[in-house]
Amino acid sequence: MIQDLIMEVPSLTPDTLWDIEFYKDQGLYFYLEEIEKLLPNGRVHVKGRGEMIMLGGYSYLGLIGHPKINQAAQEAIERYGTGTYGVRLLAGTLDLHSELERKIAEFKGTADAVTFSSGYVTNLATISALLRKGDVVICDKLNHASIVDGCLLSLAKFVRFRHNDMEHLEYRLASADPSARKLVVVDAVFSMDGDVIDLPEVSRLCRQYGAYLMVDEAHSIGVLGKTGHGIEEHFGLPNDTVDIKMGTLSKTIPSAGGYVAGSDELCQFLKHEARGFIFSAALPPASAAAALAALEVIEEEPERSQRLQRNYFHFSDQLRAAGFDLLQTETAIIPIMCFELEKAALLAHYCQQRGIFVQAIVAPVVPEGQARLRSTVCATHTLEDLDYCVETLIAGAKEIGGIL
Ligand SMILES: Cc1ncc(COP(=O)(O)O)c(C=O)c1O
Question: What pTM value is reported for the model?
Fold first, then answer.
């Protein structure tokens, strides 16, 4: 019989930790919402919901839709078209890519820079290209997933230290084989907690123990430092503090892609050895042009960084005064701790129903029992909108109970 020949096969999709159907059934699923239009002042138009205050985005300086950046992208399409002739090493390099890399190097105070097709790919490609068997890579426990994946892909020994705990980092460095090549990798600003790495101490320890230092500036470009140049500016440290300066072109910089800025030797190496560079197509012209223009805008309009600071304090001071636990944040990422998954989902629901676009972050992205709303402020939010968000969060937390 033909039926006897059909084999039983296991499900295509393995078990996951996300009980998506549960959230959908409870009306608590707010992911993959479709934004239809950008509006001024950090607002968006969401399909089926109308105008909302965007309190969960990464456009920290409010540069999405900036006229100069839009125009640069349009002109790039006119001049080069929408794609490239392939990978950078072969036919895909445009003069625009080289110009962007020179600008990134100048912005970060390095000799050179290299761009990749995303921030995720940048970490994956860079870490896995630099490390070999016998090397040791030491990471903060809360580093972004793309760093973790890069470490796992390399054949190096992968060890972690407790979050921002310098004694534990020193213990890890001291315990590593003294003859091994060592790389310490940290986020500048931690993407779920909003706190800042203790860079002065990390870099001192790296020098003491002969380790190289890589810092991911995905959430610090435009955010940290008086003029938004990032973590060295924030701490008043010299430009050569960090060996491998990684960042994304997808957050403050409203484009797509990632970069590494560093020495000529490092960038040459990555352009010829990093598989994520060699085997992935070049950044599309519009993305490269938008990123280049955005870096110029950050320098031309320093008042945006100052407005972001003002908005951060305006929002977080009121939330702290109301009794919310915001962890140790000191940046535009403001975690609003709810601890229990249901409470975070209910508070997100309360806000979403009232025109505030904010998401609940739950396990496995954060540890079990650490569920939160991950709110983010931007330079273009108005004080009135931020006040409305504070009032709504307080009212929602009171109604749900056990958050304040
Ligand atoms: C700290 C950090 N590094 C890297 C990335 C990956 O960047 P991209 O989204 O540009 O791929 C992210 C993304 O959210 C991030 O938060």
Answer: 0.96
Contact 274, 125 (CB under 8 A): yes
* Percentage of the chain modeled with pLDDT above 70: 99
Per the listing, tokens 């009232």 go with 354
How many Cβ atoms are within 10 Å of 42's Cβ, its own excluded? Answer: 24
| CB distance 115 to ligand 1 below 6 Å | no
Q: What whole-number distance in Å separates Cα of residue 87 and Cα of residue 354?
A: 46
Closest to 108 in 3D by CA, of 255, 256, 222: 222
Ligand 1 atom closest to the Cα of residue 257 is 10
Tokens of residue 341, six digits: 């998954």
In this predicted model, what pLDDT tens digit does every residue of 13-43 receive, in sequence order? Answer: 888 767 788 778 877 788 899 999 999 999 9
Q: Whose CA is nearest to atom 7 of ligand 1?
A: 119
CA of residue 239 to ligand 1 center, whole Å: 23
- On whether the CB atoms of residues 365 and 387 are closer than 8 A, the answer is no
Question: Exposed, middle or buried, 354 (CB in 10 Å: 0-12/13-18/19+)?
Answer: middle
Alpha-carbon gap, residue 380 to 297, rounded angstroms: 15
Centre of ligand 1 to C-alpha 327, Å, is: 21
Residues 179-216: pLDDT tens digits?
Answer: 999 999 999 999 999 999 999 999 999 999 999 999 99
Query: Which residues are annotated as catalytic?
Result: 191, 219, 251
The alpha carbon of 18 and the centre of ligand 1 are apart by a number of angstroms equal to: 21
> Strand pairing partners for 139?
160, 185
CB 166 within 8 A of CB 140: no
Q: How far apart are CA 110 and CA 284, in angstroms?
A: 24
Q: Is 58 in the pocket of ligand 1 (CB under 6 A)?
A: no
List, in order, residues 6 or more apart from 73 with CB less than 8 Å away: 286, 287, 289, 290, 293
